[in-house]
User: Fold this.
Amino acid sequence: MRTVAIIQARMASSRLPGKALADIAGRAMVDRVLDRTGAAGSLDAIWLATSDQATDDGLAAHVEALGTPVFRGEEDDVLGRTASAARAAQADAIVRVTADCPMIDPSVIDRIVERFHRGDVDFASNTLTRTYPDGLDTEVFSRAALDRADAEVADPLLRLHVTPWISGVLGERCPNGGFTTANVCHGVDFSHLRWCVDDDDDLDFMRRAHAALPAEFGWLDVLALVTAAPALLRINRRHDMWEGVDRDRARLAGADRPQPCFQRSNMLLNRALKTIPLGSQTFSKSHQTYVRGAAPLFVERGHGCRVRDVDGNMFIDYVLGLLPVVLGYCDPDVDAAIQDQLERGITFSLPTELECDLAERLVGQVPCAEMARFGKNGSDATSAAIRLARAHTGRDRIAVCGYHGWHDWYIGTTSRDLGVPAAVKALTATFPYNDADSLAQLLATDSDGYAAVILEPHGLLGPEPGFLETVRALTERHGTVLIFDEIVSGFRIDPGGAQAAYGVTPDLATFGKALANGMPISAVVGRAALMRRMEEIFFSTTFGGEALSLAAAIATLDKMAASGLAACLARRGRGLIDGANAALARNGLAGLARFGGGSWWPILEITAPEAERNLLVSLLRQEFAANGLLIAASLNLCLAHDDDKVERETLEAMDRSFTAVRDALESPDPAGRLRGAPVKATFAVRGAQT
Ligand code: PMP
Assistant:
């Protein structure tokens, strides 16, 4: 039986063009792959397979000059190219290796070839259950299996990836052709390590690692190196292994796209509803927010601005956990800070220095902040600020505008007020945003006076000129504490919050959400004279000084400052608002919906008549999900969205979504186009952001 390694390589790479010939410590990457593969004792020959495009002429010539045979075939048909290369090489067993894995290991190749040659399987690899570092991927399969795949697989997406149909790795979405498979595991799980080259960070890691490694090394030497060097370990993290599939899906957008399947999401919901009321801890993350049956309901993992649901579908995420994820999922700097702290402890019996570090940072960057206290949820911070204002003024009444959390004093003003005592409800009044006259009236008509006015300085809407200034003047005149709820605006609009962006300084301000890139922490900050009263009221919780979140918050604030986050979000938001509105207009939907809001927080405004709104929202969310976008009522942005390619991909997916919505609305039965139950509004105040 002739065993041939076929190394796939091409120069075109959207993230790292020319990577096959990229220099790694004095040698081209492909040369390293050829050498290391060649060191495997179980191979009879090595071939390189590349595309027939002119961009790969130089690569083909380079490899041929080294004496390695090269097969060239159609660019997007990697399966066909591999099958043809196997025929040309007269291979009976094919060892599939890719040229972006310069640390591929001969001993691992030999181990998997040996497993395959036991003769009881069609496919053996170390990729079905991952335990080896990503970058030691080796797949071995029979020529018969490859030829059958070549003849029977029609889906262009599957033809880009050669083995999913044989290995069955896509599960029910792609039932394998009845092949038998075997997985080779390492005893310890090192699958979190990433030793392949897809982007600049990976190349940087490879260069640094090769500079420190001897000329001849095995994968355990690399393991020892990264374990001993935390800086190397930090950049050597695993990206999402499905990113490639997602990219290909976008590239083949014109081809027939399979409808995503949400079978596992639906099964999990049925399971969750048996033991968890609502099946979720948060209304806006629950099945009520998406079209049940036609959208993901459970997520499996996230990386950067993308998430993968439990069915394996990938989405560009514009919800981001309802805004906490401001840098991106698994941000390496924040995760490293959490890991460093994890080694020291999580919750202690005394405060830590981290509390001073975080308080000092907030005092340094938020105009009203002279002192700070921390909580876990945004509602902790707003409720503490309200109690503080009541204690300070000796008054009970509160004026609110917008959404401020789940506690009695606020939620009693919404339609979801069940369980809130009437006596508590009577103490909170509402006033419309941007309507300083109605606030003036409210404050003037109550003889006992108001303890606090709390509002989002910039939420779904931005302030009209003079509004915030008038609110400031009114509260000063009435001796009322002014609280800016910056739980959404905090750090996204400006490092100092909306109060810095608009030059109006409140007495107290609350932050949460984006403070720690997803870790649970919130803050009340404000004038020292007021904040000192925290010692008199009761604001005290077991987890108030939990150290992982403090460490994450410090790393997040540092990275937001270093990356110029607010400017990045504004630029990306502007591009998305303009592009999405153009797509709505192209599809004849401009009269029904538009993207507005601040460029740092684009809002999907539904302008359709009230009776049609819920169907339109449901159709939009359904089609967004079908096209790989997780979007609810706004475009929640993070640093990882700041990529032209992500913007392009998003706008193309939006265009397809709007076309599907238009077709549905023009059909005789628009509601019949819903593939599941329509979305349900939680309550009137802010639709789906809470
Ligand atoms: N204030 C505002 C402006 C919010 O958007 C939210 C949450 N969406 C809160 C307060 C309450 O925060 P949490 O849900 O973390 O308690």
Notes: Residues 377-379, 382, 403-405, 456, 485, 487-488, 512, 689-690 surround 4'-deoxy-4'-aminopyridoxal-5'-phosphate (CB under 6 Å). The longest strand covers residues 45-51.
